[in-house]
Structures are given as structure tokens and as C-alpha cells.
Amino acid sequence: MNETSRNKGSSGDRYARELERHLDWLDTFSSTALGVLAAASGIYTYLGVRTLLDSPGIWTTFAALSYSVAVSVGIFVFWSYMLRLLPAVRSAASRVGLLLAMGLGSIAIVAMSSWLNAAALAGGAAVETHMATTVQHYQASLERAHSNAVGGQSLTRDVARVRQSFTDLSEQEAGGTLSGFSGRGAVFRVLTQKGAELQALEAQLASVAEPIEETFAEGNRILSRMRGISVEPGALEGRTVRFSEDAVELAGLITQLRQLNPAPLVARAAKDLSDAVVLPELDGSTPEMRAGQSSTISSVLTLVEQRASTLASAAAEVETLPQPDETVYAPMSAADAVIVYARNFVPAWAGAISIDLLPAVLVFIIMVVQAAIRTGRGDHDTDDRMTVGELRAALAAAEQLRQAEVVSEPPRALQRPEG
Fold it and tell me: Which one of 113, 223, 263, 375 counts the least CB within 10 Å of its CB?
């Protein structure tokens, strides 16, 4: 039984010594690798800070450089602490405390470095994505405004139909088939009055057709130019300026299209059609003729109210159509754009965070290996890891101690033999 325990202990010691030799070899370049990762993160942090500091100059460069150096030093020191201390502690409370500290430190690193690294990696593409998204919004607003304006202009057919009905009635009245008395009397004048109002409204509606199409065509030309700006090569600063100018112009055209929509004009004209009626003096030569004119005019006014209600309903349908969104282009820095459109740049974010938090994987690896070493060695310690040089130094120290003991030992008194 004891022999078996001794064999297991010897095997565990050999296993622990093997792992310790691997750790000794890895320690020779771990600090260098950690320094390279910290320096790389600092470089990308510098590029990200430069996108936030717009003003050129030596002080701006110095500020960005100072920040990136501070980030590199902070990352190197923090992970050096974690690599050394967390695998070495043994109690559960100590491990939990250091793990919490590592979590807080990782959040701090992401907050001060990783998002700037992502801005350096994908900031330009994020700004272009913002431009492309803005173009889509402007296109939707332009098409909606044009659709509403065309819908309002299509009320011309309804106005023409109502106007034609009054024209036909006036012709019938002139022939005497409406009131029963031929001629161009009071009834005829009421009918021609409303027909003239509707004809003027019809002319107004027809006059806006060409401006609507011209404005829509100009908006499409600006949209095409904005699409080209969003994908063309070159510095972002100049492109965003030109994009902003086109966006302002396009917003004005969308507003113009909304103003060209004639539906509100038709609604007001329909109200005036029934409210504003100038009744002529009855000109019948006999009381019977005047009574017939009065009765016919009452019927005509009822008809006018019906036709006005029909036009008002048609205009209300157009006015209740969804209105175009108020799209306003707000220029974004690369750092802001990469946050707003983070889901579009998951690989860039993954790379930016990984370069900062990769040492956490090394910490866990060393923790596992140290636990394996302790398990293999057991509760007792061993000096089997002594090198030849350390063994020689130990033997020399032991020899010096032995000589010191011999020198310090007092000589024994010689005893005389009894005679």
C-alpha cells in the first residue's frame, strides 16, 4: 500500500515538473507578447482618437499619442498583474475577488480602448453606411411626397367631372328642359357661375403637374449624386461636406413637393363651392316663371352641396395619406458611426475587443495548469526542481556551515591515565 502511494507520488511529481518546465519556457516570451498586444492596441487607439479630435496641430497629435501610450501601459500592467496573481492564489475568496477585479478591468479596457480600436478598423465604412442609410430615408421621403402630390393632382378628374355636370345642366337650362322655361335666366347664371369656379380650379390643378414632375426629377438627380458620394474613394471630410449640401437641397425639394400637393386647395374650393353662392335676381316675366326658377335654383343648390361634399371627401382621402418623414442628415464621426451601426460591423468589433481581452484566455490557461501542478504534487513540497548550479551552491553552503561548527567546537581536555 505504501509502495503504491510512493509510486503515485513520484508520478505526480514528474507530471508537475513537466508542466513547470513548460511554464518556465513560456515565461521567457509571455511579457514580450503581452507588450506587443498592448502596443498594437495603443496604435489603433491613437488612430481612433484622431478621428475624434478634428483640429489639426502638434498639441492634438501629442494628446492622442499620450492617450494611446497610457492605454498601452494600462493594458500591459493590468494583464501582468492578472497573469501573475490570479493563477497563484488558492483560496476561493481570493479567486472570486481577483475574477471580479479582472471583469471590472476588462470593462474599463473596452470603454477606453476597444471602441476606439473599432473606430480605427471600421470607422470609414461606418460613416459610409450612415450616408447610405440616409440616402434610403431621403429616397423614401421623396417618393412619398411625390406620391401624395400626384394623388392630389389626380383630383383634376373629379373636378372635371363635377364641372362637366354643371356645364350639361346649363345647356339643358338654355334649352328649357330644366326649369321648363328656355333662355339664359337666373338658373342658367347660377349653373354657369359654379361651372366657371370649377373650371378655374381645374386649370390650377393642371398647372401644378409639370412642377411636380420637375421637382421629383431634380430630387432623383440629387439622390443619385449622394449615392455616388457615399461610395466614391477619397477623404471622408470632403465627401461629408458635399453630402451635407446635397442633403439640405434635397430636404428643400421634399418640402416643395409637399407644398405642391393640391389636395388642400381642392378641399378649400369644395367648401367655397357650397358656401359662396351668389343668387341672381329672379327674372321671370310671370309669377309662375319666377316660382319655377326659385324651385329649380333650390334644386341646383342641393346639387352643388352634394358635388362639393364629393370633392371634399376625395380631397380628404388624399390628405390622410401617410406623410413623408422629416429626414435630416446629421454628420457623424467615425467613432459615433461605428457605435450606431455596430451590428453591421461585428467582425471589426470582435477584433477590436479580442486584441484587448486576449490575455484573459492566457490567465485562465495558467490557472488550469497551476491547478494541475498542485494536484500532481499533492500537499507536500519538493526540491526536485533544483538546478545543478543551485545544488552546488547548496553543497558549498553546507560545507561552510560544517567547517564553522568544527571551528567553534571547544577542544576536549586530555585525561591522564592512572598510575
Answer: 375
